[in-house]
Amino acid sequence: MGFGRPELKSTHLLEIKALTVEFPMDQGVLRAVDEVSLSLARGESLGLVGESGCGKSVMAQSILGLLPPPGRVRAGEILFDGMDLVKLSPPELRKVRGRRIGIVFQEPMRSLNPVLRCGEQVAEVLRAHRGVRGGEARAQVCAIFEQMGFHDGGDLYDAYPHQLSGGMRQRVMIAVALACDPCVLLADEPTTALDVTIQAQIISLLARLKRARNLSVLFISHNLALVSEACERVAVMYAGRIVEVAPVAGLFDKPWHPYTRALIACLPGVDDATRPTPIPGEVPHPLALPGGCRFRDRCPEARAACGKEPPLVEGEAGHWVRCWVAQEAVGRNHDAE
After folding, report:
1. How far is CA 95 from the centre of its chain?
2. Mean pLDDT over residues 182-204, rounded?
3. What pLDDT sits at residue 151?
4. Which one of 2, 44, 196, 315 has the fewest beta carbons within 10 angstroms of its own beta carbon?
5. What pLDDT was estimated at residue 272?
């Protein structure tokens, strides 16, 4: 089942340009996202990874105008098919949110209405954006539930969220996000509260839906292992900035940024001989960011040059890095060739 999508104009379906997001506070201005630029192509899955507090979820909230107060987009553009979402009025943005861009949050029990039947929560999206009501809405919702892997959409329609398992609730959230056949899905830590087996099922479901609907997916996670399975390309975020962007294979085979290598070293091995290595120190507080490279106080390769902020540059086709040491090493390799 699918709805007709408006014709799209741009090769990059979603383009974020020099986005800066701030939260004015009594102690000062907290800059959660600092001049971040990313692009998402049609039918692509892009992973956005980093430790908690690095700004990943704020990015997703910014795209759909869901920043909690007093958050604000201080500068930059968020272009969706040529439209700058930052400049849209609330009514204009509501026409995009849910209809052309869907979002799945990490905690379905907080996102789903506990006193509303699951089917009604999906039907509500169809009523708001498609004007579908009554028996037709119920039939469409049951068909959507079947696409989510449920065998009896009718029973699920009448169930309440508390009657479902965590994995089932998350699939209902995915149904809500995809009810109007959007072009882009923002998946913000969609498997965090689930056990490993259910995580794999959700990742498999998202991959199947992506192929079937030609979805563009921004997959936000702190779990590099999941991102390696779910995405074609990865952007690594640290303290509000992008530090590395690369195809999945390139990132795992040849990570350039010391922070990316540290994240990969945190992954558990297949046996006791390969133990995860924790990253020393903590992510700097957004109100007390160090000058220069923001990772330098935790970086084993830091040097005097790291006191100056490095730019994000492309070392190889599609592989970008924000690190003086990495840029020097890549330059040497290119000279040797």
Report:
1. 21
2. 91
3. 86
4. 196
5. 52
Q: Which pLDDT score, from 0 to 100, does residue 218 have?
A: 97
215: how many CB neighbours lie within 10 A of its CB? 23
Tokens of 327: 């840029």
If residue 316 lies in a helix (H) or strand (E), which one and from where to where? Answer: strand 313-316
Q: Does residue 193 contact residue 166 with C-beta atoms inside 8 Å?
A: yes
Tell me, what's the pLDDT at 317?
Answer: 86
Answer yes or no: is pLDDT of 305 > 70: yes
CA 112 to chain centre: 20
Whose CA is closest to 310, among 319, 298, 323?
323
Contact 47, 63 (CB under 8 A): no
d(CA 312, CA 244): 8
**What does the block give as tokens for 208?**
């199947």
Distance CA 101, CA 192 (A): 21
Mean per-residue pLDDT for 30-52?
95
- Average pLDDT score, the chain: 90
The sheet carrying 12-25 orders its strands as: 28-41, 12-25, 72-80, 83-84
Beta carbons within 8 Å of 152's beta carbon, 6+ residues apart: none
Residue 163 CA to residue 168 CA, distance in Å, equals 10
Contact predicate 112/74, CB 8 Å: no
What pLDDT is attached to residue 281?
87
275-291 confidence digits (pLDDT tens):
778 888 888 988 989 89
User: What count of Cα atoms within 13 Å lies in the side-chain half-sphere of residue 68?
Assistant: 4
pLDDT in the model for residue 330: 75
> How far, in Å, CA of 210 to CA of 66, rounded?
24
Helices (H), the chain: 56-63, 90-96, 108-111, 118-130, 134-147, 153-157, 166-178, 196-213, 224-230, 248-253, 258-265, 324-336
